[in-house]
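Notes from the 1:1 (GR / supervisor)

We went over the backlog. Supervisor wanted to see one worked example end to end before approving the batch request, so GR pasted a single chain during the call. The sequence is below; no edits were made to it. Supervisor asked that the structure be written out right there so they could see what the output format looks like.
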Amino acid sequence: MSDISLTFPHILLDNVRKFPASKIAMREKEYGIWQSYSWQDCLEQVRDLALGLAALGFKKEDKMAIIGDNRPHLYWGLAACQCLGGVPVPLYQDAIHKELHYIVDHSECKFALAEDQEQTDKLMHLKEEIPGIEYIIYNDPRGLRNYKHDWLIAYTDVQEMGRKFGQENPDYFMNAVNGVKPDDMSLIAYTSGTTGNPKGVMITHRMIADCSRGFLEWDNLDETENIMAYLPMAWIGDHMFSYGQALTAGFTINCPESTTTTFHDQREIGPTHIFAPPRIWENILTQIMIKIEDSAWIKQKAFHYFMKVANRVEKKRIVNEPVPFADRILYAIGRILIYGPLLDNLGMSKVKVAYTAGEAIGPEIFEFYRSLGINLKQLYGMTESCAYVSMQKDGDIDSESVGPPAPGVEIKISDSGEVMYKSPGNFIGYYKNPEGTVETMENGWLLSGDAGYITERGHLKIIDRAKDVSKLNDGTMFAPKYIENKLKFSPYIKECVAHGMSQDFVAVFIDIDFGAVANWAERRQIGFTSYTDLAQKPEIYDLIYNEILRVNKSLSQDEHLKNSQIKRFLLLHKELNPDDSEITRTRKVRRGFIAEKYETLINALYEGKDNVDVEAKVTYEDGRTTTIKANLKIRDVEIY
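Structure output shown during the call:
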């Protein structure tokens, strides 16, 4: 493999030469019909757009913001930018104005590419405040007919400019592509910003290509794979799987019609390869449990009976012990009656391997999916490592670890218990933030910020964020994320925040899953008017109380954590929301912010109060705000 083939413009060109015209590179569902594109189609789309950008003055190392749902045109925009030696900067499509302003301004984007009117409007507001933005390009013209600005241009018009520019400059495209080197920057991916402003992670072509090949070889994935591209393009996980791996292997990317039709569209495609963060797996589990509760009692009985069988079987398989003959027979029956139909309904019947990463997944959730027969594996990585540090391998699965080091990766644990690693994906540094880069790197080792250790099997086990792991007053280890993940196995709990640092006991805030709990309440004819009203119903407190008892029973069986059982809880009056800065766009809890914002609630939990008044500001995506007032009940929980 030549060094130049480590750049994504050359990988695209290689795919056109390597694969026949009948090989589908991308699909997009539009108006209920799947539109297919070959690698040759993709190259033509990318070349025309790249030349159009060049005609508008786009130069090597220029930055281009990209915002919208997963669309072939946005991935082509990313590739077109790279073909000119530019650097794409993907943005979260649900980010509010303040977040977008910081990233676009900080990264010095001169160009911006938007999916539709909604995203174009956001960028137009930014242009009024950031004069460095020269052009905004939109893909979907609906609703934009009356928008008249010289700097606002339709995607197709830029491509038409590119075709004309290409006729006048026939060698320009290949000269630009050949000028891109493997160690040139290929992407700036901004972190989720759990402790402050997000950081711009600078990543090269070589890093993405090397890590993509490492992933593919680990699980024997090739050009025959089908994947769904539905995760935010701004997340490194989507970039690695829906772009890096897809181009490197040459497999097919499928873009759903909309975020709301993803799983319906997935059933039509039948992907072989799935990647999702824990929150997606949690949401799927919640929907499964809602449907089971709505089914006839005999179906409920059958489901719960055969899931117990599946769980027993999976626990044996994980530790490589023989499965008793009776359970093998029952599991085969369960596959016909329960597991097979359920997998088919989820569009996962063809899945060869599924991954979860982004943060820790609860062992119960992980084992649930493996019990169904899904080859679910945990990955561990960060934006700063191209999501490539450790991963589980077939025949060596542990529900509470993230597997051994990936090929080419070294891992060590610092004296303080922090995970450190050297990976082929280790970033260049943070854009315009040399101080942050120095803080994160130590003699070539990247400091993860996560606390963990290497197990006897050689697996990496992550406990929590190093800064979040602490102790209760009696010396018991307090790992909030571990407790929260156990709670989120419940279909009725969407999010939670555990407290306990330097306290006598653990207490939690809980966000109910409104859809699941509302469904539960309606079946029992419990009336409610809003999220806040429902969350404060005595019956809902009883429901969540029993879910916490389940977690306490599990914690009581762990010698190190039995004293960190939950003693008090309250149900929040609103969902934790990234627009209110309480969680990140990837749904990671911003603990410092929550501790400050809800200090009164935390104090009430530890002062023995039975209720507490709260008044909180809620921010909408368009910047409007409102205030919610409520009186929240506080309940004690039994300890095992």
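Supervisor's comment: The two ends are 60 Å apart (CA to CA).
Batch request approved.
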